[in-house]
Design brief:
276 residues; Arc Repressor Mutant, subunit A; five-stranded mixed sheet; NAD; 2 iron, 2 sulfur cluster binding; Thioredoxin-like_sf; NADH-quinone oxidoreductase subunit E
Length: 276
């Protein structure tokens, strides 16, 4: 028996409402003007249409293709290549748990496993209230502060199972949460517009700082000819007396955890819309 399924061909994607399209076209012209070749604007334009609906829809890809003079196949090839472009509706807050090697052994795997149970969702799935989408993500280049959780690409460092559960509970309840470093938190749609290259108008967002930890900066200091510190101290033991040996595991979640390659029941990867 053949696996080929016969049926009606898929209809073209619908267009945006006239007022939405007019607004997006004005934004698109501003983005395209930054580049000598218009097709170079595809990545920020995908962020732009993602800021409209919270994910990249067939309508959004049609819009990008039309304003850039590309085919929808060319746009789809890019939209499905990068994981930052969502292909299905997702939450106001993308909660990503780093499960790469260091974060995993420092507790990231345990955090991810517990959050799935606590929220009742799998990898890449969204809570029923539409607030939180949970996913395991690759290295965030913040190993000094492992295990790290990111919310809409803002850092929440040195997490534990309990602090991560409290974080998602606060997000779902609408309570204010403050990232460990960087700008104040905003919704995923707002984040997508900033990534499209439009100004971040939130008070204090541009001035907000945050840097790498001591271990990451040692190499930079050596390259500059500066003397390296005698001992790099974990952020969790920075206040420990210098004449005392640090504990084997400064806190309970530092102990190596059982790791897994991924969530076998909800594998990561691009998700196509029905009919694609």
């Amino acid at each position: 028996m053949s696996d080929v399924q016969l049926g009606m061909p898929e209809l073209p994607a619908p267009d945006y409402p006239a007022e939405v399209r007019a607004r997006l076209e004005a934004d698109a012209r501003e983005v395209i003007a930054r580049y000598p070749d218009s097709r170079s604007a595809l990545l920020p334009l995908l962020h732009l249409v993602q800021s409209e609906e919270g994910h990249v829809t067939r309508t959004g890809m049609r819009f990008c293709a039309e304003v850039l003079g590309l085919t929808t196949a060319e746009v789809t090839a890019v939209a499905t290549f990068y994981t930052m472009y969502r292909r299905k509706p997702s939450g106001d807050y993308q909660v990503g748990v780093c499960t790469n090697t260091l974060c995993a052994v420092m507790g990231g795997d345990a955090i991810f496993e517990e959050l799935q149970s606590h929220l009742g969702v799998g990898n890449g799935e969204t809570t029923e209230d539409g607030k939180v989408t949970l996913e395991h993500i690759e290295c965030n280049a913040a190993c000094d502060y492992a295990p790290v959780v990111m919310v809409n690409w803002e850092f929440f460092d040195n997490q534990t199972v309990e602090s991560a559960k409290g974080l998602v509970d606060d997000l779902r309840a609408g309570r204010t949460v403050e990232p460990t470093r960087g700008a104040p938190l905003c919704t995923y749609k707002e984040t997508a517009r900033i990534l499209a290259g439009f100004p971040d108008v939130r008070p204090g967002a541009v001035e907000a700082g945050g840097s790498a930890g001591p271990a990451s900066l040692v190499g930079l200091r050596l390259a500059k000819g500066e003397a390296a510190p005698g001992r790099v101290v974990s952020p969790r033991s920075a206040d420990a007396p210098q004449d005392e040996a640090p504990p084997t595991h400064p806190s309970s979640h530092d102990a190596p955890q059982r790791t897994s390659a991924s969530d076998p029941h909800h594998p990561a990867g691009p998700v196509a819309e029905e009919g694609e």
